[in-house]
Amino acid sequence: MKQFLSVQDVPSISTMLKEVDEIKKTPFVHQALGKNKTLGLVFLNPSLRTRMSTQKAASNLGMNVMVLNVGQESWQWEMADDAVMNGDRPEHIKDAARVMSQYCDIIGIRCFPSLKNKLEDDQEQVLSQFVQYCEVPVISLESATRHPLQSMADLITINEFSPVNKKPKVVLAWAPHIKALPQAVGNSFSEWMTAAQLDFHIAQPKGFELNEQFTPNAILHHDLNSAIKDADFIYIKNWSSYHEYGKLYDGDKTPWLLDSDQISSLCPNAKIMHCMPVRRNIEVKDELLDGAQSLIYKQAQNRIYSAQWVLQQMLQSHLS
Ligand code: CP
Hints:
By secondary structure, the protein is an alpha/beta fold. It folds into two domains: 3-146 and 303-317, Rossmann fold (3-Layer(aba) Sandwich), CATH 3.40.50.1370; 148-299, 3-Layer(aba) Sandwich (Rossmann fold). Helices cover 36% and strands 15% of the residues. It has a five-stranded parallel β-sheet, with helices on both faces. Strands 10-9-8-11-12 form a five-stranded parallel β-sheet. It has a two-stranded parallel sheet with strand order 4-5. Helix 2 (49-60) packs across helix 11 (296-317), helix 6 (148-161) crosses helix 7 (184-195) and helix 6 packs across helix 11 (296-317).
């Protein structure tokens, strides 16, 4: 594996799920693979889970880890080609990527969208340049349009909690928020649910449909109650408008905030998922996050194993 930027980089979902199962049983068995290898983790945006779970995964494989928070403890990066760099960004991304390639065997990078320039975000202006100039395998730690390590962990979790002998019904349910958030988690989740061939639905207000490039096989709803009927999994997540790019929802939020009565009456066995961080009682009520059907901490735990599977593939195939 030379890069991990989307589900397209996983040759077989079913093989991956079996291999993750083995990793979870014996997480330290491949410590020799990472000996004397270094993972660089580059963050242009904040993180708790991605940072700690990926460090933990690397440590399970015997790797060294270096973390760089761009702009806070390093130079700000210039992204524009042919820039005359007379502003407040003293290092070009192409130089940063090439320099870090001298120190690291694998590099992960987190680069959120601006939510202002749709074309640049759709083209993954930051990630694509980093990949172009980086001389070692690159892992996306969430980019402008996707969050593949999160979606892989979500799929692992769904696989572990699915009803026996039934294709699970999975609903990605838009929820309110106080800030305009990226569409990356929703896009990516949709891609992974499609690749896994699950019964996949998305519920969102009108105007908040994701980029259809990511949702070709999803069943779309504009009513939350009809979408969640008989659901096995409800993945709750906010995103800002793709079509009115970056717009925050200004309609009535009440119908989009789920409660336990709805779950009991419409989908009593549904598991509740969220990638976190979650704004409690804005996006999801405490009663659901803390209830017996919540999988949010299982998802967070599985972030270790999605990262470990990816690192292991890269160490085995590209660096051995
Ligand atoms: N879910 C997720 O990626 O969390 P962080 O932003 O804290 O890494």
